[in-house]
Write a structure and sequence with these properties.
With 330 residues, the chain is of the alpha+beta class. 48% of the residues lie in helices and 17% in strands. It contains ten helices and eleven strands. Strands 1-2-9-10-11 form a five-stranded antiparallel β-sheet. Strands 3-6 form a two-stranded parallel ribbon. Strand 1 and strand 2 form a beta hairpin.
Amino acid sequence: MNNKCIRYAKNGNGSAFLYILLILALLSSIILTFISSTINYINFTNNYKDKNKAYYIAKSGINLSTYFISQYGSNPVSYQELLNKIAPYESGYPILGGKIKIFVINNNSKFNVNQLIFTDNQINYTEYSEVQRLFYVLGIPSNILENLITFAQKYQLSYNSLELKFMQLTHGPKAKQYLVNVAPNTNLSVLNTEYKNSFLTIRDLMLVPGMRYKYYFLLKQFLTVNSSGLVDINTAPYEVIESLSPLISSSAAKELVSYRINNPLTSVSALTEVSGFNSSILSSIVNRIEINSTFYLIKSAGEYGGAKVSIKSLYNINGGTIQKIYEKIS
């Protein structure tokens, strides 16, 4: 009888001990989970705070740049002064316990993509380095620039071959959205029945492999395809505007000059809103005119702790007013 009691007591104590161990293990698991969640929450909160601070540092770079731009406006001479102001920030400048990097590019002197290649089909590295910096600030992959160079080296072709190339590449709804078929243009420079240039219009950039519309939208503000220059209908004297076409009367040209004082044109197509100009006149001069608004591209990168935030903004100066037309935060 005594042996049975002792055996029963041992079995009971053993079960209780195991039960206690299970409870302790469960409590330990709960405590560890709580500690882990707390640590993760603290890390998340710190990262969130760092991200916020990095964002405000980057935003301060945008505000600082727009302040400098408002000081110097669109004057090409003053643009160099603007670059001198921005220069200390390009390599990284300590601010608010973090670091800021600022880049500004202006389109007063657009890069001519047709000058990237010499007549002997070699790369013009002087121009290339400038365009390379432009691609970097815009955040466009470097392989797109390489594709552009390859395209420019390959397609210095005769008109017939060039027309065939466009006809092949403009099939499909997506391509037709951006491109039109090539037609003879007497204003283009031709040498020995061949075009001197690889790109006939800025929209031809959409033919470059890998080029997306979001890249083209930014690039077209800073690149050009001709060095002779087009007539800026926002600034040209009425005599120059009148000389563009026999369809333009002297009174219509003077009307445009008066109209744009208070209503600067924001697009070439807006010309038809001016009295004396219609779609027929626009069609006859569309290849000879442009709206040369001044654009500033600002890229500001803020760093705080381990967090980084980059802001890209595109600003337009037209008629003395500054307007933000694009911004991307990453």
